[in-house]
Design a protein that fits this description.
The protein is an alpha/beta fold and 267 residues long. It has helices at residues 44-51, 74-84, 100-105, 115-128, 144-158, 186-201, 213-218, 252-266; strands at 6-15, 18-28, 33-37, 59-64, 67-68, 85-89, 174-178, 205-209, 221-226, 229-233. It has a six-stranded mixed sheet, sandwiched between helices. Helix 2 crosses helix 8 (252-266). The longest helix has 16 residues, at 186-201. The structure holds adenosine-5'-diphosphate and magnesium ion (MG).
Amino acid sequence: MPPPVVELEQVSKTYGDVAALAGAGLVVRRGEMLAIVGPSGSGKSTMLNIMGTLDRPSAGTVRVDGHAIDALSDRQLAALRARTIGFVFQAFHLAAGVPALDAVADGLLYSGLPRGERRRLAERALRRVGLGARLHNEPHQLSGGEKQRVAIARAVLGAPSPGSASRGDGGPLLLLADEPTGALDSRSGEVVMDLLHELHRAGTTVVVITHDRDIAASLPREVRIKDGRIEHDSGTAEPFTGRAAPHTFATEHEHEHDAAVVERVSR
Ligand SMILES: Nc1ncnc2c1ncn2[C@@H]1O[C@H](COP(=O)(O)OP(=O)(O)O)[C@@H](O)[C@H]1O
Ligand SMILES: [Mg+2]
Protein backbone atom coordinates (compact mmCIF):
# COMPACT_ATOMS: atom_id res chain seq x y z
CA MET A 1 0.00 0.00 0.00
CA PRO A 2 1.50 3.38 -0.96
CA PRO A 3 2.05 5.93 1.82
CA PRO A 4 -0.45 8.78 2.22
CA VAL A 5 0.21 11.64 -0.18
CA VAL A 6 0.29 14.08 2.73
CA GLU A 7 0.45 13.60 6.50
CA LEU A 8 0.37 16.56 8.88
CA GLU A 9 0.88 15.82 12.57
CA GLN A 10 0.45 18.61 15.13
CA VAL A 11 1.61 21.16 12.59
CA SER A 12 2.02 24.75 13.75
CA LYS A 13 3.20 27.79 11.88
CA THR A 14 3.80 31.12 13.53
CA TYR A 15 4.55 34.47 11.98
CA GLY A 16 5.84 36.69 14.77
CA ASP A 17 3.07 36.43 17.34
CA VAL A 18 0.46 35.24 14.81
CA ALA A 19 -0.31 31.51 14.95
CA ALA A 20 -1.39 30.82 11.36
CA LEU A 21 -1.55 27.09 12.15
CA ALA A 22 -1.91 25.78 15.69
CA GLY A 23 -1.56 22.00 15.84
CA ALA A 24 -3.28 20.93 12.64
CA GLY A 25 -3.47 17.22 11.81
CA LEU A 26 -4.57 15.83 8.47
CA VAL A 27 -3.99 12.72 6.39
CA VAL A 28 -4.67 12.79 2.66
CA ARG A 29 -4.56 9.41 0.98
CA ARG A 30 -3.81 8.63 -2.63
CA GLY A 31 -6.70 9.25 -4.97
CA GLU A 32 -8.67 11.54 -2.67
CA MET A 33 -10.30 14.81 -3.69
CA LEU A 34 -11.13 17.18 -0.88
CA ALA A 35 -12.19 20.71 -0.13
CA ILE A 36 -10.59 22.86 2.55
CA VAL A 37 -12.95 25.56 3.77
CA GLY A 38 -12.86 28.13 6.55
CA PRO A 39 -13.05 31.84 7.26
CA SER A 40 -10.53 34.25 5.80
CA GLY A 41 -7.33 34.22 7.87
CA SER A 42 -8.03 30.77 9.33
CA GLY A 43 -4.81 29.27 7.95
CA LYS A 44 -5.97 27.60 4.73
CA SER A 45 -3.27 28.98 2.45
CA THR A 46 -0.62 28.43 5.11
CA MET A 47 -1.67 24.79 5.34
CA LEU A 48 -1.67 24.36 1.55
CA ASN A 49 1.80 25.90 1.25
CA ILE A 50 3.09 23.54 3.93
CA MET A 51 1.44 20.54 2.25
CA GLY A 52 3.12 21.65 -0.97
CA THR A 53 6.53 22.00 0.75
CA LEU A 54 6.70 25.65 -0.30
CA ASP A 55 7.01 26.42 3.38
CA ARG A 56 8.24 24.53 6.42
CA PRO A 57 6.26 24.30 9.67
CA SER A 58 7.41 25.96 12.92
CA ALA A 59 6.57 22.73 14.76
CA GLY A 60 5.11 19.33 13.99
CA THR A 61 5.71 16.69 11.34
CA VAL A 62 4.99 16.86 7.62
CA ARG A 63 5.31 13.85 5.32
CA VAL A 64 4.80 14.05 1.57
CA ASP A 65 4.53 10.75 -0.27
CA GLY A 66 6.13 9.12 2.76
CA HIS A 67 9.11 11.51 2.98
CA ALA A 68 9.49 13.37 6.28
CA ILE A 69 10.29 16.82 4.99
CA ASP A 70 12.37 17.96 7.96
CA ALA A 71 14.85 15.24 6.98
CA LEU A 72 15.26 16.80 3.53
CA SER A 73 17.46 19.72 2.49
CA ASP A 74 15.92 22.58 0.54
CA ARG A 75 17.31 21.06 -2.66
CA GLN A 76 15.87 17.64 -1.92
CA LEU A 77 12.58 19.29 -1.08
CA ALA A 78 12.58 21.17 -4.38
CA ALA A 79 13.22 17.88 -6.20
CA LEU A 80 10.39 16.14 -4.36
CA ARG A 81 8.08 19.06 -5.11
CA ALA A 82 8.99 19.18 -8.81
CA ARG A 83 8.42 15.46 -9.11
CA THR A 84 5.11 15.15 -7.33
CA ILE A 85 3.19 18.39 -6.85
CA GLY A 86 1.34 20.79 -9.12
CA PHE A 87 -0.01 24.15 -7.94
CA VAL A 88 -2.91 26.30 -9.10
CA PHE A 89 -3.54 29.72 -7.53
CA GLN A 90 -6.47 32.11 -7.55
CA ALA A 91 -4.44 34.81 -9.34
CA PHE A 92 -3.14 32.38 -12.03
CA HIS A 93 0.55 33.36 -11.58
CA LEU A 94 1.24 33.69 -15.31
CA ALA A 95 4.03 36.05 -16.37
CA ALA A 96 2.93 39.03 -18.48
CA GLY A 97 3.96 38.87 -22.15
CA VAL A 98 4.58 35.12 -22.18
CA PRO A 99 2.42 33.16 -24.67
CA ALA A 100 0.47 30.18 -23.29
CA LEU A 101 2.63 27.62 -25.11
CA ASP A 102 5.85 29.03 -23.60
CA ALA A 103 4.32 29.41 -20.14
CA VAL A 104 3.44 25.70 -20.11
CA ALA A 105 6.63 24.53 -21.86
CA ASP A 106 8.74 26.47 -19.34
CA GLY A 107 7.32 24.23 -16.63
CA LEU A 108 9.55 21.54 -18.19
CA LEU A 109 12.73 23.66 -18.28
CA TYR A 110 14.48 21.44 -15.75
CA SER A 111 13.20 18.17 -17.17
CA GLY A 112 16.22 17.69 -19.39
CA LEU A 113 13.94 17.34 -22.42
CA PRO A 114 14.94 19.19 -25.60
CA ARG A 115 13.05 22.37 -26.42
CA GLY A 116 11.06 20.87 -29.30
CA GLU A 117 9.81 18.05 -27.09
CA ARG A 118 8.91 20.48 -24.28
CA ARG A 119 6.83 22.50 -26.72
CA ARG A 120 5.18 19.42 -28.20
CA LEU A 121 4.10 18.24 -24.73
CA ALA A 122 2.97 21.76 -23.79
CA GLU A 123 0.82 21.97 -26.90
CA ARG A 124 -0.75 18.63 -26.11
CA ALA A 125 -1.49 19.70 -22.52
CA LEU A 126 -3.08 22.94 -23.75
CA ARG A 127 -5.21 21.05 -26.27
CA ARG A 128 -6.35 18.81 -23.44
CA VAL A 129 -7.68 21.77 -21.47
CA GLY A 130 -9.43 23.07 -24.58
CA LEU A 131 -6.97 25.81 -25.49
CA GLY A 132 -5.69 24.45 -28.81
CA ALA A 133 -6.74 27.72 -30.47
CA ARG A 134 -5.01 29.93 -27.87
CA LEU A 135 -1.47 28.57 -27.95
CA HIS A 136 0.13 31.89 -28.83
CA ASN A 137 -2.05 34.17 -26.72
CA GLU A 138 -0.43 36.14 -23.94
CA PRO A 139 -2.20 36.43 -20.57
CA HIS A 140 -3.79 39.79 -21.47
CA GLN A 141 -5.33 38.10 -24.52
CA LEU A 142 -6.97 35.38 -22.42
CA SER A 143 -10.08 35.41 -20.25
CA GLY A 144 -9.74 34.58 -16.54
CA GLY A 145 -11.04 31.08 -17.14
CA GLU A 146 -8.59 30.54 -19.99
CA LYS A 147 -5.71 31.79 -17.84
CA GLN A 148 -6.63 29.30 -15.16
CA ARG A 149 -6.72 26.53 -17.76
CA VAL A 150 -3.18 27.51 -18.85
CA ALA A 151 -2.14 27.32 -15.19
CA ILE A 152 -3.69 23.86 -14.88
CA ALA A 153 -1.93 22.65 -18.05
CA ARG A 154 1.34 23.89 -16.58
CA ALA A 155 0.70 22.29 -13.19
CA VAL A 156 -0.12 18.97 -14.81
CA LEU A 157 2.85 18.93 -17.14
CA GLY A 158 5.44 20.19 -14.68
CA ALA A 159 4.97 17.32 -12.25
CA PRO A 160 4.22 14.10 -14.14
CA SER A 161 3.01 11.09 -12.22
CA PRO A 162 5.93 8.86 -11.24
CA GLY A 163 4.49 5.75 -12.87
CA SER A 164 3.59 7.31 -16.21
CA ALA A 165 5.40 6.26 -19.35
CA SER A 166 6.27 9.81 -20.34
CA ARG A 167 5.82 13.36 -19.16
CA GLY A 168 2.43 14.81 -19.80
CA ASP A 169 0.60 11.50 -19.40
CA GLY A 170 -1.58 11.42 -16.33
CA GLY A 171 -1.28 14.24 -13.83
CA PRO A 172 0.91 14.96 -10.85
CA LEU A 173 0.60 12.78 -7.77
CA LEU A 174 -0.84 15.79 -5.93
CA LEU A 175 -2.53 18.92 -7.22
CA LEU A 176 -2.97 21.79 -4.75
CA ALA A 177 -5.39 24.53 -5.75
CA ASP A 178 -5.81 27.69 -3.65
CA GLU A 179 -9.21 29.19 -4.51
CA PRO A 180 -8.84 28.28 -8.18
CA THR A 181 -12.29 29.65 -9.03
CA GLY A 182 -12.11 32.66 -6.72
CA ALA A 183 -11.48 35.16 -9.53
CA LEU A 184 -13.77 33.54 -12.10
CA ASP A 185 -17.38 33.90 -13.18
CA SER A 186 -19.47 30.84 -12.36
CA ARG A 187 -19.37 29.32 -15.86
CA SER A 188 -15.55 29.56 -16.09
CA GLY A 189 -15.36 28.25 -12.54
CA GLU A 190 -17.35 25.18 -13.58
CA VAL A 191 -14.98 24.50 -16.47
CA VAL A 192 -12.00 24.72 -14.12
CA MET A 193 -13.66 22.41 -11.58
CA ASP A 194 -14.51 19.96 -14.39
CA LEU A 195 -10.82 19.84 -15.28
CA LEU A 196 -9.85 19.19 -11.66
CA HIS A 197 -12.43 16.38 -11.48
CA GLU A 198 -11.02 14.92 -14.69
CA LEU A 199 -7.52 14.91 -13.18
CA HIS A 200 -8.91 13.29 -10.07
CA ARG A 201 -10.55 10.56 -12.12
CA ALA A 202 -7.21 9.97 -13.81
CA GLY A 203 -5.68 9.29 -10.38
CA THR A 204 -4.33 12.63 -9.18
CA THR A 205 -4.97 13.49 -5.53
CA VAL A 206 -6.64 16.92 -5.52
CA VAL A 207 -6.88 19.41 -2.63
CA VAL A 208 -8.98 22.52 -3.28
CA ILE A 209 -9.31 25.52 -1.01
CA THR A 210 -12.63 27.16 -1.74
CA HIS A 211 -15.05 29.73 -0.43
CA ASP A 212 -17.78 28.32 -2.63
CA ARG A 213 -20.18 26.20 -0.58
CA ASP A 214 -21.55 24.41 -3.64
CA ILE A 215 -18.07 23.40 -4.76
CA ALA A 216 -17.14 22.23 -1.26
CA ALA A 217 -20.35 20.22 -0.97
CA SER A 218 -19.76 18.62 -4.37
CA LEU A 219 -16.42 17.09 -3.34
CA PRO A 220 -16.10 13.70 -1.62
CA ARG A 221 -14.50 15.14 1.52
CA GLU A 222 -14.71 18.48 3.27
CA VAL A 223 -12.23 19.71 5.86
CA ARG A 224 -13.12 22.83 7.84
CA ILE A 225 -10.35 24.87 9.38
CA LYS A 226 -10.71 27.56 12.01
CA ASP A 227 -8.05 29.47 13.96
CA GLY A 228 -5.32 27.27 12.54
CA ARG A 229 -6.93 23.99 13.58
CA ILE A 230 -9.07 21.37 11.86
CA GLU A 231 -12.54 22.09 13.17
CA HIS A 232 -14.41 19.44 11.19
CA ASP A 233 -13.49 16.68 8.78
CA SER A 234 -16.23 14.83 6.92
CA GLY A 235 -13.69 12.04 6.33
CA THR A 236 -13.51 9.79 3.34
CA ALA A 237 -16.68 8.11 2.21
CA GLU A 238 -15.13 4.66 2.17
CA PRO A 239 -11.74 3.09 2.81
CA PHE A 240 -9.45 3.69 -0.11
CA THR A 241 -9.02 0.55 -2.16
CA GLY A 242 -7.03 1.67 -5.16
CA ARG A 243 -7.74 3.26 -8.47
CA ALA A 244 -6.97 2.45 -12.06
CA ALA A 245 -4.34 5.14 -12.53
CA PRO A 246 -0.71 4.42 -13.28
CA HIS A 247 0.76 5.98 -10.16
CA THR A 248 -1.65 4.33 -7.74
CA PHE A 249 -0.09 1.06 -8.83
CA ALA A 250 3.38 2.42 -8.20
CA THR A 251 5.44 -0.58 -7.22
CA GLU A 252 8.01 -0.89 -4.47
CA HIS A 253 10.56 -0.60 -7.23
CA GLU A 254 9.20 2.79 -8.27
CA HIS A 255 9.36 4.03 -4.70
CA GLU A 256 12.97 2.95 -4.56
CA HIS A 257 13.49 4.80 -7.80
CA ASP A 258 11.91 7.94 -6.30
CA ALA A 259 14.11 7.71 -3.25
CA ALA A 260 17.11 7.32 -5.54
CA VAL A 261 16.16 10.50 -7.40
CA VAL A 262 15.96 12.42 -4.14
CA GLU A 263 19.32 10.92 -3.15
CA ARG A 264 20.95 11.89 -6.41
CA VAL A 265 19.73 15.46 -6.34
CA SER A 266 21.09 15.88 -2.84
CA ARG A 267 24.69 15.23 -3.88
N1 LIG B 1 3.91 35.47 5.36
C1 LIG B 1 3.15 35.86 6.40
N2 LIG B 1 3.61 36.76 7.29
C2 LIG B 1 2.86 37.13 8.34
N3 LIG B 1 1.63 36.68 8.61
C3 LIG B 1 1.09 35.79 7.76
C4 LIG B 1 1.83 35.33 6.60
N4 LIG B 1 1.05 34.45 5.93
C5 LIG B 1 -0.10 34.35 6.62
N5 LIG B 1 -0.08 35.15 7.72
C6 LIG B 1 -1.17 35.28 8.72
O1 LIG B 1 -1.54 33.98 9.12
C7 LIG B 1 -2.94 33.87 9.23
C8 LIG B 1 -3.46 32.79 8.28
O2 LIG B 1 -3.27 33.23 6.95
P1 LIG B 1 -3.70 32.37 5.69
O3 LIG B 1 -3.14 31.01 5.82
O4 LIG B 1 -3.32 33.13 4.48
O5 LIG B 1 -5.29 32.30 5.84
P2 LIG B 1 -6.45 31.95 4.79
O6 LIG B 1 -5.80 31.39 3.56
O7 LIG B 1 -7.32 30.97 5.51
O8 LIG B 1 -7.17 33.22 4.51
C9 LIG B 1 -3.50 35.25 8.97
O9 LIG B 1 -3.66 35.90 10.19
C10 LIG B 1 -2.42 35.90 8.14
O10 LIG B 1 -2.44 37.29 8.30
MG1 LIG C 1 -5.83 32.08 1.58
